[in-house]
């Protein structure tokens, strides 16, 4: 077991360095990258000198690379181009991070729970109306263009039914009469994107769960369980599910990328004040330090969650430990 | 009592076998209702794409009427803010989606298969290195990455296709790799090697053909992802301005404030088309899965 | 004295390509404390018969005809819920290739204990101590009851399966190819274990295998199946000494003998038939060296050729001497 953990940790670290390297090069090597800082008129002159000095933009590339790593480990991510003089860290963390994590976390969790439950039900009732309709529904939602669903939700519930607000989420700094009022208003803005995102994830989780369980049904040990006369409930939930959760964990770990940056389209459509929207705005404004910062954050989150997933996997699957 | 079978030349034997396999595949596939529905849906769109000039009343890129008209007999879905017929745009948009979907998927499958086979068959250092690279690409979030690359490299349609392909090959790579790994251990590969065949021959004649089902299934799903990715990029405003893809139409719709003015005829049809086309491919993929993956089939 | 009586059992599988007539008109009986062997080539329907008795057929399979009488109770007409009192308590099963028959993510003791707890009203503690006893019975270290299946070798996993099968003190144990996947030495040990346990617990055993040598070691009575039909059924000694069906004789002849002079193996030419479209009349006729005009026309009746011996062949009397052991055509 120890070997396994060490091996996975080592791989994670390698992947991390590779990802950071890619992160660095994408933003430096692309045509018209940070050198823009030298010519971008938006950046005030004092900051310009500061940036050039801090990030060594006038030094050879390999020196820049090492400097980049050095800065990284000191929590120095640079200064945003767009939000003048605000350190990237401040722009990213805080309200925006919170909003995105809440939105994505809830959506993935909801989609997972619903998808798994219905997936298991459908697999156990294969071929029946329940199964076929659930499968068709999932295949269709899997093919949804997310942003269009968002638009539809806004159109139906916002425009026609006036249930949801169409404008942007209230920016930070707005005062509310009480926390309760704040919470209610927050939820009002949350529901639209929440429904949209949950729907988009739901199909995938359902299909994977259903297929995994159907595959498990063909295994010999399922026949043994039936032969022993165990209740179908026990067979399904103890014997089948335990094996089915394994691939699900890998997939959810992969989806952790979305936790940070995956809601770009939805956040844009609903003007939800989060990191996805920030990505969109930063690309438009060519605010590379911010983008680099977000990417770094995403990388760290994914690598850590993959590592945790592997640990959980090893805990659940005794075969891996040896 | 046992009949002597005539010996047939090898080439013809393989052709017969292939033909028989294809026929039996089709027979089974026909019975999957979902798969068949998907095929019909996709074929309808292909029909639309091929015969676009004959179906559309107007040139989709030319201004032919008053801007922002509601649907009428002369403009089935009304006009956009530049006075262009939305319906014609919709039909021609099929071509873009299909083209981008097919090409991007094909390229990504190519990349993925190459990497998967080298990784799985040779193993060792090559495998570790390729897998770390694959992991890195998996971590990259598709849409933001696409946005960034497209904003750097320009919005040409060829850029979009290549960028999409470069970001989605990882799924294929992983599956092909695991297939290659398991095939490598099979006795028939050992036997072929014992006879003295080179790696190249083993890969191309024996391993690769057995991975076709996996590759094909991934290709279909890749088309889904590619079409959705292109639509997303175009909607956000980074699509190719010279073509009118469905995502672009929605982008224009958003710019024209179709949402806040309730112009549903502008907003709904393009998205509906995207959904139906991708759903068609998803259905096909499901049908394929049922055929290729026998899970206690019943009547 | 008769524990299990199967009469005219027919089970078919309904799949897209057609209807597979996996087992037709199967009739045999197993007495108490008797070891019955069901032999035949791969795909001849033996496992189908076993699954039919336990009512464990996959969704595509259905028993379309026949009776299965366990202590005078018909199992065919029992509903799924009612089978709960039968499965594992009266009849249990040891599956082929315990490689996959055990759930890889649950420890073996748990898998045995859950059967005991479900079927009988005893406490967890008692159930687990019974698990320990069972382990000792089958020759496994009782300290390993919490280990996982992949930590055991093939032979040991089979022992676990046997322990599991005996957990609720059944009357009949069906063993489907219990030793096929094991090497010869381990095979011998498991066979010895089966014989020992059968004596100890007064069990009836139904041993399914394609390996006649295993049947010769363990069984009192033997049934030979081919292409879904029961061709011959007799006491073991009689069947091996003087087979009354051409297929039986060829089957025995296909086994090399360690003693005696070396001779060419007599294999049976041809391949087992497609059971969606089985041969007309006697299903063995395309491969039978003695086939005549009647064979493809009508199905032979399954008759009692002599006391306790059933044979399905048109020429059962004429071939009596020809088929005696030693006469290889």
Instruction: Give the amount of beta strand of chain A, in percent.
Output: under 5%
End-to-end distance of chain A: 7 Å
Biggest chain pair interface: A-B, 59 and 47 residues
Rg of chain C is 21 Å
Radius of gyration of chain A: 24 Å
Catalogue the unreliable spans of chain A: none
Helix content of chain C: 25-40%
Number of strands of chain A: 0
Q: State the secondary-structure class of chain C.
A: alpha/beta
Mean of pLDDT of chain C: 86
Largest sheet of chain A: none
Total number of distinct structural domains of chain A: 1
Account of the protein in words:
The complex is a heterotrimer of chains A (322), B (299) and C (329). Chain A contains 14 helices and no strands. By secondary structure, chain A is mostly helical. In chain A, helix 6 (95-124) runs antiparallel to helix 7. The N and C termini of chain A lie close together (7 Å). In chain B, helix 2 packs across helix 4 and helix 4 runs antiparallel to helix 10 (199-235). Chain C contains 10 helices and 12 strands. Chain C has helices spanning 46-54, 98-101, 108-119, 124-137, 154-166, 184-201, 212-218, 236-241, 246-253, 294-297; strands at 2-15, 18-31, 35-39, 61-70, 73-74, 91-94, 172-176, 204-209, 221-226, 229-235, 302-306, 309-312. In chain C, helix 3 (108-119) crosses helix 4 (124-137). The two termini of chain C are 40 Å apart. At the A-B interface, helix 1, helix 7, helix 8, helix 9 and helix 11 of A face helix 5, helix 6, helix 10, helix 11 and helix 12 of B.
Task: Give a short summary of the structure.
The complex is a heterotrimer of chains A (322), B (299) and C (329). Chain A is an all-alpha fold. In chain A, 76% of the residues lie in helices and 0% in strands.
Secondary structure: elements and pairs:
The complex is a heterotrimer of chains A (322), B (299) and C (329).
Chain A: H1 2-29, H2 36-39, H3 45-55, H4 61-73, H5 88-92, H6 95-124, H7 129-142, H8 146-160, H9 179-217, H10 220-227, H11 232-261, H12 264-270, H13 275-285, H14 288-316
Helix pairs in contact in A: 1-14, 6-7, 6-9, 6-11, 7-9, 8-9, 8-12, 9-11, 10-11, 11-14, 12-13, 13-14
Chain B: H1 10-30, H2 33-50, H3 52-55, H4 86-122, H5 124-139, H6 142-153, H7 157-168, H8 170-184, H9 187-195, H10 199-235, H11 246-255, H12 264-292
Helix pairs in contact in B: 2-4, 2-12, 4-5, 4-7, 4-8, 4-10, 4-12, 5-8, 6-7, 7-10, 8-10, 10-11, 10-12, 11-12
Chain C: E1 2-15, E2 18-31, E3 35-39, H1 46-54, E4 61-70, E5 73-74, E6 91-94, H2 98-101, H3 108-119, H4 124-137, H5 154-166, E7 172-176, H6 184-201, E8 204-209, H7 212-218, E9 221-226, E10 229-235, H8 236-241, H9 246-253, H10 294-297, E11 302-306, E12 309-312
Helix pairs in contact in C: 3-4, 3-5, 4-5, 5-6
């Amino acid at each position: 077991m120890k070997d396994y953990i060490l091996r996975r940790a080592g791989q994670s670290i390698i992947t991390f360095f590779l990802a950071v390297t890619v992160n660095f090069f994408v933003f430096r090597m692309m045509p018209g990258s940070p050198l823009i800082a030298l010519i971008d008129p938006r950046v005030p002159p004092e900051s310009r000198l500061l940036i050039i000095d801090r990030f060594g933009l006038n030094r050879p590339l390999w020196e820049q690379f090492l400097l980049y790593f050095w800065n990284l480990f000191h929590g120095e991510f640079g200064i945003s181009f767009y939000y003048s003089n605000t350190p990237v860290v401040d722009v990213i963390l805080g309200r925006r991070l919170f909003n995105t994590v809440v939105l994505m976390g809830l959506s993935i969790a909801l989609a997972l729970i619903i998808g798994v439950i219905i997936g298991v039900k459908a697999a156990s009732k294969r071929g029946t109306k329940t199964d076929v309709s659930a499968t068709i529904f999932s295949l269709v939602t899997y093919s949804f263009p997310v942003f269009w669903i968002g638009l539809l939700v806004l159109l139906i519930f916002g425009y026609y039914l006036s249930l949801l607000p169409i404008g942007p989420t209230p920016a930070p700094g707005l005062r509310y009469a009480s926390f309760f009022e704040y919470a209610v208003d927050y939820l009002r803005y949350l529901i639209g994107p929440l429904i949209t995102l949950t729907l988009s994830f739901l199909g995938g989780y359902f299909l994977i769960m259903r297929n995994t369980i159907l595959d498990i049904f063909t295994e010999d040990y399922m026949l043994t369980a039936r032969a022993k006369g165990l209740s179908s409930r026990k067979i399904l939930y103890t014997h089948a599910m335990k094996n089915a959760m394994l691939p699900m964990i890998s997939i959810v770990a992969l989806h952790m990328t979305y936790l940070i940056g995956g809601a770009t389209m939805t956040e844009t459509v609903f003007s939800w004040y989060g990191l996805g929207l920030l990505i969109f705005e930063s690309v438009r404004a060519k605010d590379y330090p911010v983008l680099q910062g977000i990417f770094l954050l995403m990388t760290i989150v994914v690598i850590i969650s993959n590592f945790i997933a592997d640990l959980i996997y090893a805990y659940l699957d005794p075969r891996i430990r040896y | 009592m046992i009949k002597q079978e005539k010996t047939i030349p090898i080439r013809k034997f393989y052709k017969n076998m292939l033909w028989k396999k294809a026929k039996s595949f089709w027979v089974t596939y026909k019975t999957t209702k979902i798969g068949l529905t998907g095929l019909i849906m996709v074929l309808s769109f292909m029909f639309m794409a091929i015969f676009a000039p004959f179906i559309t009343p107007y040139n989709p890129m030319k201004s032919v009427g008053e801007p922002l008209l509601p649907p009428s007999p002369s403009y089935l879905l009304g006009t956009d803010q530049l006075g262009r017929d939305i319906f014609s745009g919709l039909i021609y948009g099929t071509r873009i989606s299909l083209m981008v979907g097919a090409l991007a998927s094909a390229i990504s499958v190519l990349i993925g298969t190459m990497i998967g086979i080298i990784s799985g068959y040779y193993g060792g250092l090559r495998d570790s290195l390729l897998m770390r690279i694959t992991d890195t690409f998996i971590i990259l979030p598709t849409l933001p990455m696409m946005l960034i690359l497209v904003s750097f490299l320009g919005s040409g349609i060829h850029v979009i296709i290549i960028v999409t392909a470069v970001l989605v090959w990882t799924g294929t790579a992983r599956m092909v790799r695991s297939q290659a790994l398991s095939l490598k251990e099979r006795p028939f590969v050992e036997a072929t090697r014992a006879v003295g065949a080179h790696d190249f021959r083993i890969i191309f004649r024996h391993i690769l053909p057995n991975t076709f089902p996996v590759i094909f299934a991934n290709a279909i799903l890749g088309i889904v992802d590619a079409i959705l990715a292109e639509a997303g990029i175009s909607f956000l405003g980074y699509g190719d301005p010279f073509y009118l893809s469905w995502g672009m139409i929605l982008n224009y719709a958003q710019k024209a404030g179709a949402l806040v003015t309730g112009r549903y005829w502008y907003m709904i049809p393009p998205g509906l088309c995207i959904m139906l086309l991708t759903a068609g491919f998803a259905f096909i993929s499901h049908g394929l899965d049922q055929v290729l993956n026998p899970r206690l089939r019943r009547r | 004295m008769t524990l299990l009586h199967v009469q005219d059992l027919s089970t078919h599988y309904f799949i897209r390509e057609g209807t597979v007539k996996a087992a037709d008109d199967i009739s045999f009986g197993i007495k108490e404390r008797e070891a019955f062997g069901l032999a035949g080539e791969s795909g001849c329907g033996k496992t189908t018969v076993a699954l039919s008795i336990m009512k464990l057929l996959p969704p595509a399979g259905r028993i379309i005809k026949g009776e299965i009488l366990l202590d005078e109770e018909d199992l065919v007409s029992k509903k799924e819920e009612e089978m709960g009192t039968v499965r594992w308590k009266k009849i249990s099963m040891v599956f082929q290739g315990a490689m996959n028959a055990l759930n890889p993510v649950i420890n073996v003791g748990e898998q045995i204990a859950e059967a005991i707890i479900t079927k009988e009203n005893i406490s967890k503690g008692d159930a687990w101590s019974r698990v320990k006893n069972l382990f000792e019975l089958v020759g496994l270290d009782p300290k390993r009851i919490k280990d996982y299946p992949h930590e055991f070798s093939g032979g040991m996993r089979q022992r676990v399966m046997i322990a599991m099968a005996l957990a609720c003190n059944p009357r009949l144990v069906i063993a489907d190819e219990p030793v096929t996947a094991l090497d010869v030495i381990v095979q011998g040990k498991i066979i010895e274990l089966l014989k020992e346990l059968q004596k100890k617990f007064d069990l009836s055993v139904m041993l399914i295998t394609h390996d006649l040598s295993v049947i010769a070691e363990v069984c009192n009575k033997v049934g030979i199946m081919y292409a879904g039909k029961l061709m011959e059924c007799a006491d073991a000694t009689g069947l091996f000494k003087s087979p009354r069906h051409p297929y039986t004789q060829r089957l025995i002849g296909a086994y090399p003998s360690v003693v005696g002079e070396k001779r060419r193996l007599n294999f049976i030419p041809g391949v087992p038939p497609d059971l969606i479209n089985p041969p007309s009349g006697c299903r063995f006729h395309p491969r039978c060296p003695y086939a005549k005009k009647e064979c493809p026309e009508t199905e032979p009746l399954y008759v009692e050729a002599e006391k306790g011996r059933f044979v399905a062949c048109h020429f059962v009397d004429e071939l009596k001497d020809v088929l005696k052991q030693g006469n290889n055509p």
